[in-house]
Amino acid sequence: MRQVCFTATVGACLALAQTSDSRAQEADQNGWYLRGGPVGIFFSPGADLSVGGAPFPGADVSVDDNYSLSFDVGYRVNEQISATFTFGIPPTAEIRGDGSLAGAYLGDVTYAPAILALQYRFPTGNPMFEPYVGAGINYTMILDSKARDVAGFDVDNAWGTVLQVGFESMIDERLGVYFDVKKIWLEADVGGTLGVGGPAAAGKATLDPLLVGTGLIWRF
């Protein structure tokens, strides 16, 4: 009888220890973390423009790819839910004409995108591979516009929606690496004057950038 009681007691203690360890591991995952590393920004541009108040058929734009550094400030609520605020070093994009505007160099734009998103993390039980999906909102602030062939070239700040997919791989309890892809659907109002004293041009530019980044994670 004593052996049975001893065995049951030991079994209960082991089960309690495993539960406590599991809760401790989950608690270690929760809380604040930082991520940072290089990011590539690849645009899918388009334009709907008018000149002198009349539609300008066939007008289009192209935007060169950009590369920068991106940073996330994140908070992990529990094993499956987290939230991030993403920002980065502002890059500068060259915006050129395409289609019926081919050959025109419209201007340069320095911009600062900021993203607030929620993530759902798929529990795999393997800290070396933890995939996630996310969704959120983007606000792109235009810090500077420099006119080239379009006098007074100007691009407005704009809101957009974001979808996200990626994974994290933890090296130890604090340090890890990540790979992340974000798609932003973004349109911005643009305007200017074609040449000195020429007709006013205005419209919407579709940017729809794809952000592909990787880097390091540090959990507090």
Automatic annotation (TrEMBL):
It holds the Pfam family OmpW. InterPro entries: OMP/PagP_B-barrel, OMPW. Coiled coil: none annotated. Belongs to the OmpW/AlkL family. PANTHER family: OUTER MEMBRANE PROTEIN W, PTHR36920. This is OmpW family outer membrane protein.
